């Protein structure tokens, strides 16, 4: 009985090896999602660094003649 089980396991193993070898995409496919995952994480990291590098906003009031008015003080609505 044990010999039969070993033979059966060996037979199934050989069939599985042939099936995987005949579909080469099963060996290459896991690389593609990994590359996309690295790209998404890299994009997220670059956007996060860009957002973190934005400093405090400063605004200037300009009149119709492109001259700044000195008697007006404005505060930023964006709180950082």
Q: Count up the helices.
A: 3
Order of helices and strands: HHH
* Main β-sheet description: none
Helical content band = 55-70%
Seen as an oligomer or otherwise, the chain set is single chain
Number of strands: 0
Distance between the termini: 75 Å
Q: Tell me the radius of gyration.
A: 32 Å
Question: In one word, what is the shape?
Answer: rod-shaped
Low-confidence stretches: none
Based on helices, strands and strand pairing, what is the structural class? mainly alpha
Mean pLDDT across all amino acids: 80
Approximate strand percentage:
under 5%
Provide a compact summary of the structure:
With 80 residues, the chain is mostly helical.
Task: Tell me about this structure.
This protein has 80 residues and is mainly alpha-helical. The chain has a domain at 2-52. 59% of the residues lie in helices and 0% in strands. The chain is built from three helices and no strands. The longest helix has 22 residues, at 31-52. It is rod-shaped and about 100 Å long. The model has no long low-confidence stretch (mean pLDDT 80).
Helices and strands, with pairings:
Blueprint: H1 2-22, H2 25-28, H3 31-52
Features:
80 residues, mainly alpha, 3 helices, rod-shaped
